[in-house]
Amino acid sequence: MLCQPVSIAEKREIKIKEAEICLSMGLLNEALNNYEWLLSGTPDQNVQTNQHFRGKIRYLKEEIDKLEQSDDSVLPTDIAEVFRVRVT
For the chain, percent helix, then strand, then coil, each to nearest 5? Predict the structure, then answer.
């Protein structure tokens, strides 16, 4: 059985779900990347959707900035790197 190509609409839905899952898991940088990808592919005339994605992007950038400024916080993407350095 051959796999059917994924439509643009399906790919957008997958990216939205991926962004939401990343956000729920605290993977802020990954969620940000997904929302930026979604915004870049949304036509300008789709004002409501663009506002939604811009709001998510603004929120994520603020949260990432807060975590980066905090001395005792480590971003989830950095934890793996710290662990990898200590193990090897």
Answer: 75, 0, 25
